[in-house]
């Protein structure tokens, strides 16, 4: 039935597209015809994928919704591969086919400069530095971390990623002027207010979802209109809820997996800034927003697939398809940045930044070696030593009854005497 339904939809869509092309006279504009043909091809592929792609772990609001984003992931990855194989100039000018306003170099905004919270030299508005930095990225930070918390579902992992990204901004501000911010912009506005408040609201939402009772009765079986509307709204909430317990210190496998997740998250965050830098896209452009919406939808599925694979590797024998696509997309975006502007990426880090990162990596490797190798060997040695001591103590207690004679030897001597008498 599903295949027949797919063929029917594809047939109707193909006929509709063909009917439209036959009714109108084909324009002589090659660029316009090329764009229209590519869009039509993508629509046919999405229609096929929505009905035929493999279902993911989510079923609300509908499995077709998540199949749609899986197909969008494939299209986006193919687009990135196409951009990767172009020259730098052709790749940037190709963006004009998407938006004619693109393809023009844009200056990066510097959020540093005057970092005085209260500027006594400006009598009109001494707090102008704060108002200058309250732009559209403030609510974007909040909603972004609220949604990331719903994906990761762990307070400590979210805080680690949030703080680590601020350290990355400190480390890479010599490459991108956009990373240059005031200290209070880094730690007060970003980490505490925007990110911290978003993480807090996300954790409260997770608590509500984990405690809420789900009653998924049919829409037409609900007697009141208020109940019907409530049921329609609940259609966009999860059918069931799984609480993520990452437990990174429980085993070396889970520790490496959590470190890999944090690394991919940070790389995807950096790709956002570097992509718009190398492709000349302004931060407020709708393509940047669409990319964030895309990662919000596919990231939640990918995180669930990764957690299921880590939590029960016997049942989930291989990593989910969406998780593989997200990893491939992140890696391809990074390759585009490396190819389009290798000079910026190869700018050497300041010496004190190199020292800090070297010290941090050494501390992480040292803790890993101690926790999963040295500590386990030490505990195993102590356990074996304790068992030997207990065994020796029990043996000594068994061989001695308090007067220096062994009960086992007394029993053997008694048996020999009885045999002689007989």
UniProtKB/TrEMBL annotation:
Question: Domain of life, per the record?
Answer: Eukaryota
Give the UniProt keywords, A-Z.
Endoplasmic reticulum, Lipid biosynthesis, Lipid metabolism, Membrane, Phospholipid biosynthesis, Phospholipid metabolism, Transferase, Transmembrane, Transmembrane helix
Annotated region (Disordered) at 392-422
Q: Where in the cell is it found?
A: Endoplasmic reticulum membrane
Entry's Gene Ontology cellular component terms:
endoplasmic reticulum membrane
Give the main localization category. Answer: endoplasmic reticulum
The GO biological-process annotations, alphabetized, read as: phosphatidylserine biosynthetic process
Give me the reactions it catalyses: 1-(1Z-octadecenyl)-2-(5Z,8Z,11Z,14Z- eicosatetraenoyl)-sn-glycero-3-phosphoethanolamine + L-serine = 1-(1Z-octadecenyl)-2-(5Z,8Z,11Z,14Z-eicosatetraenoyl)-sn-glycero-3-phospho-L-serine + ethanolamine; 1-octadecanoyl-2-(9Z-octadecenoyl)-sn-glycero-3-phosphoethanolamine + L-serine = 1-octadecanoyl-2-(9Z-octadecenoyl)-sn-glycero-3-phospho-L-serine + ethanolamine; 1-octadecanoyl-2-(4Z,7Z,10Z,13Z,16Z,19Z-docosahexaenoyl)-sn-glycero-3-phosphoethanolamine + L-serine = 1-octadecanoyl-2-(4Z,7Z,10Z,13Z,16Z,19Z-docosahexaenoyl)-sn-glycero-3-phosphoserine + ethanolamine; 1-hexadecanoyl-2-(4Z,7Z,10Z,13Z,16Z,19Z-docosahexaenoyl)-sn-glycero-3-phosphoethanolamine + L-serine = 1-hexadecanoyl-2-(4Z,7Z,10Z,13Z,16Z,19Z-docosahexaenoyl)-sn-glycero-3-phosphoserine + ethanolamine
Q: How does it sit in the membrane?
A: Multi-pass membrane protein
Q: Which InterPro entries match?
A: PSS
Q: What would be an example GO MF term here?
A: L-serine-phosphatidylethanolamine phosphatidyltransferase activity
Its Enzyme Commission number(s) read: 2.7.8.29
What pathway does the annotation place this protein in? Lipid metabolism; Phospholipid metabolism; phosphatidylserine biosynthesis
Q: Where are the transmembrane segments?
A: 6-24, 36-53, 65-85, 155-172, 184-203, 255-274, 286-303, 323-340, 352-373
What family does the Swiss-Prot or TrEMBL record give for this protein?
Belongs to the phosphatidyl serine synthase family.
Record function comment: Catalyzes a base-exchange reaction in which the polar head group of phosphatidylethanolamine (PE) is replaced by L-serine.
Can you name this protein? Phosphatidylserine synthase
Source species: Psophia crepitans
Classification of source organism: Eukaryota, Metazoa, Chordata, Craniata, Vertebrata
């Amino acid at each position: 039935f599903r295949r027949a339904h797919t063929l029917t939809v594809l047939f109707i869509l193909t006929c509709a597209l063909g009917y439209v092309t036959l009714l109108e006279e084909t324009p002589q504009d090659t660029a316009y015809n090329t764009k229209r043909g590519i869009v039509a091809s993508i629509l046919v592929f999405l229609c096929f994928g929505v009905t035929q792609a493999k279902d993911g772990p989510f079923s609300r609001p509908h499995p077709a919704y998540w199949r749609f984003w899986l197909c969008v992931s494939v299209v986006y990855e193919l687009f990135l591969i196409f951009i990767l194989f172009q020259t730098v100039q052709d790749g940037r000018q190709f963006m004009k086919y998407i938006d004619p306003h693109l393809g023009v170099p844009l200056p990066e905004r510097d959020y540093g400069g005057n970092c005085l919270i209260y500027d006594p030299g400006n009598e009109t508005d001494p707090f102008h530095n704060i108002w200058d930095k309250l732009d559209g990225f403030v609510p974007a930070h909040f909603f972004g971390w609220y949604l990331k918390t719903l994906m990761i579902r762990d307070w400590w992992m979210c805080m680690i990623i949030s703080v680590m990204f601020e350290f990355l901004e400190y480390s890479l501000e010599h490459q991108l002027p956009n990373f240059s911010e005031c200290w209070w912009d880094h730690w007060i506005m970003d980490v505490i207010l925007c990110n911290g408040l978003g993480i807090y609201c996300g954790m409260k939402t997770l608590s509500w979802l984990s405690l809420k009772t789900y009653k998924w009765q049919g829409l037409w079986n609900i007697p009141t209109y208020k109940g019907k509307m409530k049921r329609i709204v609940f259609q966009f909430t999860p059918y069931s809820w799984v609480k993520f317990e990452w437990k990174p210190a429980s085993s070396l496998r889970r520790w490496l997996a959590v470190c890999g997740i944090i690394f991919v998250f940070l790389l995807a965050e950096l790709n956002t800034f570097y992509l718009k830098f190398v492709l000349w896209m302004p931060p407020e452009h709708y393509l940047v927003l669409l990319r964030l919406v895309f990662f919000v939808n596919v990231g939640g599925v990918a995180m669930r697939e990764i957690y299921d694979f880590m939590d029960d590797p016997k049942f989930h024998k291989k990593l989910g398809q969406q998780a593989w696509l997200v990893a491939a997309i992140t890696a391809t975006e990074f390759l585009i940045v490396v190819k389009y502007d290798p000079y910026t990426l190869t700018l050497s880090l300041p010496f004190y930044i190199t020292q800090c990162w070297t010290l941090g990596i050494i501390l992480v490797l040292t803790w890993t070696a101690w926790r999963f190798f040295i500590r386990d060997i030490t505990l195993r040695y102590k356990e074996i030593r304790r068992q030997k001591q207990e065994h020796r103590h029990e043996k000594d207690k068994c061989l001695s009854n308090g007067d220096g004679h062994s009960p086992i030897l007394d029993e053997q001597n008694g048996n020999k005497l009885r045999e002689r008498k007989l």
